[in-house]
């Protein structure tokens, strides 16, 4: 197996590897997992995986989870079909920088995403290293966010376009989750900046130590959150991957954010993603 590092900060392409072989080769899978912890997102080309093999490989990391809004393939629970087609609304949006399902109390460990069909140009996906994003924060900012916790919401994101009854029902089923602003990676013990597009506000900012008068509450917390969320946008922390059919990305959802670039015209873009159940944050 060749490992070709793609940037100085994040991402590597695995060459000479068939993921289907890892299903029956514990040693190969262990090496892939080690490379994932090192590089945070791995890429492979020309993987002839069928859906059953895709799901089986992803389950080597852990059990898979369904998505309450996107749904899963009827025959393969946990395999989410992210399909765009020429008939999709012209004002459709893709997303912003995010960590998958941080609105869950136990967000996903990671994901295995396979390209079925993609635009001839455009529709890339980008990932950012949120360990590096934390490491390079100014010391005074690190001191300010130590001990802060924040809320993450499916209601304010996926639920925002729903009728109010459906939106409130979604929130009742998935109440806002609370996570530390600086998460500790459960396998590497690295500190991770853990706020993203699903984050709505800090839960414990408004204390006498931080707020002189009431006006500080909204401005002080919202400006700090905006600054922290913006760290994923720094190019030096990123890698960008151009999709081709049968390409695969495997990423550690605990230490990265990603962004699907919405720069392509109305056409087919078919991706299938297996999300792996993770643990509670600490």
Q: What does this 3D model show about the protein?
A:
It is built from seven helices and 15 strands. The strands form four sheets. Strands 1-2-3-13-5-15-4 form a seven-stranded mixed sheet, with helices on one face. It has a three-stranded antiparallel sheet with strand order 12-6-14. 23% of the residues lie in helices and 25% in strands. The model has no long low-confidence stretch (mean pLDDT 95). The two termini are 34 Å apart. The chain has 282 residues and is an alpha+beta fold. Strand 9 (182-184) and strand 10 (191-193) form a beta hairpin.
Q: What percentage of residues falls in helices of 4 or more residues?
A: 10-25%
Radius of gyration: 19 Å
Query: Biggest sheet, open or closed, and with what strands and sense?
Result: 7 strands, mixed
Mean pLDDT: 95
The end-to-end span amounts to: 34 Å
**Strand percent estimate:** 25-35%
Dominant shape: globular
Trace the largest sheet across and list its strands: 1-2-3-13-5-15-4
What is the string of helix and strand elements? EEHHEHEEEHHEHEEEEHEEEE
Regions with pLDDT < 50 over 5+ consecutive residues?
none
Tally of strands: 15
What is the count of DSSP helices, taking H or I runs of 4+ residues? 7
Counting helices, strands and paired strands, the structural category is alpha+beta
């Amino acid at each position: 197996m060749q490992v070709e590092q793609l940037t100085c900060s994040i991402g590597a392409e695995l060459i000479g590897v068939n993921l289907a072989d890892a299903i029956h080769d514990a040693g190969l899978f262990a090496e892939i997992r080690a490379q994932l912890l090192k590089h945070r997102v791995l890429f492979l080309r020309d993987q002839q995986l069928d859906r059953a093999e895709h799901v089986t490989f992803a389950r080597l990391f852990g059990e898979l989870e369904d998505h309450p809004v996107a749904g899963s393939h009827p025959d393969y629970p946990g395999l989410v079909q992210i399909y765009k087609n020429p008939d999709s609304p012209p004002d459709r949006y893709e997303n912003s920088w995010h960590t998958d399902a941080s609105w869950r109390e136990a967000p996903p460990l990671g994901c295995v995403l396979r390209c079925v069909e993609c635009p001839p140009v455009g529709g890339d996906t980008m990932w950012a290293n949120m360990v590096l994003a934390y490491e390079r924060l100014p010391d005074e900012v690190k001191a300010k966010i130590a001990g802060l916790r924040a809320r993450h919401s499916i209601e304010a994101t996926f639920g925002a376009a729903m009728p109010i009854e459906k939106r409130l029902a979604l929130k009742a089923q998935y109440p806002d989750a609370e996570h530390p602003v600086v998460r500790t990676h459960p396998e590497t013990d690295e500190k991770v900046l853990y706020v993203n597009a699903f984050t709505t506000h800090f839960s414990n900012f408004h204390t006498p130590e931080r707020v002189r008068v009431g006006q500080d509450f909204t401005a002080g917390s919202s400006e700090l959150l905006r600054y922290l969320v913006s760290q994923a946008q720094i190019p030096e922390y990123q890698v960008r991957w151009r999709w081709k059919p049968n390409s695969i990305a495997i990423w550690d959802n605990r230490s990265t954010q990603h962004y699907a670039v919405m720069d392509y015209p109305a056409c087919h873009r078919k991706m299938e993603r297996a999300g792996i159940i993770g643990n509670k944050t600490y």
